[in-house]
Amino acid sequence: MKVLAAYMLAVLGGNTNPTADDLKKILSSVGAEVDENKIVFLLSQVDGKDFTELIASGREKLVSMSSSFGGAAVAVAATVGGENGAAAANEQEREEKVGEREESDDDDFNFTLFD
Questions:
Q1: In terms of pTM, does the model score above 0.70?
Q2: Which residue positions does the secretion signal occupy (predicted)?
Q3: Same domain for 111 and 79?
Q4: Do 71 and 115 belong together in one domain?
Q5: pLDDT tens, residue order, the chain (115 aa)
């Protein structure tokens, strides 16, 4: 994951084709361990591919995930969506919890707060 983050930082910093040395430089600048094998593997996977197309393809795959994964799909979507997505996911979680409480309260006591 660190190697991928370093690659993304390099690309977002304007280096459209980062090399292994570029990634090593980024990783060592923050004191992260450099794994040569992971760097070589990542660079072989993204060689000749456009970064924005890779991101778009990944988003499409996330969207097509089945809802049977429950909260995991919401968490992943929140991660992709950034702060706004995280806020929406947290709001949805709160609504689900509130909905569960309301239903269980009604079933347990057979009255509502406003009766």
A1: no
A2: none
A3: yes
A4: yes
A5: 899 999 999 999 999 899 999 999 999 999 988 999 999 999 999 988 888 898 888 888 888 776 546 555 555 555 555 555 556 556 666 666 555 555 554 455 566 656 5
